[in-house]
Fold:
Amino acid sequence: MYLGLCDNGISITDIARVVEGTLYSKNPEDIAFGVSIDSRTISEGDIFFAIKGENFDGHDFIPAAIKGGACCIVAERAPEEDIPYILVADTTRALGLLAREYRRRFSTITVAVTGSVGKTTTKQYIHSILSEKYKTHKTEGNFNSEIGLPMTVLSLEKDDRILVLEMGMSSFGEISRLSNIAQPDIAVITCIGNSHIENLGSRENICSAKLEIASGMRDGAIIILDGDEPMLADVLGERKLCRIHFGIKNRKSDYVAENIRHTDGGMTFDIKSQIGGDMSSLEIKQIGEHNVKNALAAVTVATMLGMSEEEIRAGL
Structure:
């Protein structure tokens, strides 16, 4: 994956420093122009991260990566081949560290989305609306893990103005690590459900795990919460964050979807807002009240970023 910000590449010495590894190379000023975790799609001049997964070990594919043009390897053990390499304790963590540093080189606004359900649809709505005004980059497919999210960040290009990231998790600590890589300016929690309750034990614990999304956020950043979920009504009081609630049932939410009705091939609804202007007869091309709520979360993000009603309608 080409590093779009770095036309002149990044020296492997600098990469070793960022990923907190030890470089072994006869030519420490060699340059990398891209990042790869897949030997099948590697390009000439990429640095290859030998990631360990549940069902694979990237170290087994180092010879193929070298054949494909890798200029350097990031690994947890020294490769047998004669190639520059950076030795780290954990290649997945190293990938995240590089993505965090790369993200810091942009003035891009980052929007992060998590939740038990609805996060992918909400991400798609956010991307669609914001693209009406800004060049917007988003997580593709389900690249929402500690491997997928850094690769999305590393695919940012110079003229991207908004980055929309989806964050998935199955246990404590995962969202926190993702948030500290992405450092969101705006975060959205769509809802608290029962997904992964076998790992976390209770909905209260699931809520706590989702709230880890705030761990990488600066003071003054915006967190947008499901106003229909009582567990999210009064959270993060110890943090200096701007808390905004959206909902359908809770009429005290900052953004409320009302007058919801079915139309041909979709839904139509109005928005009552205590912050921005009200909107009427917004349309989406999906069925179900849950999709209205996903769209409502996206509209809330869009108004925080100064989108006009016309742009919001077009994006939906």
User: Anything to note?
Assistant: The radius of gyration is 21 Å. The chain has a mean pLDDT of 93.
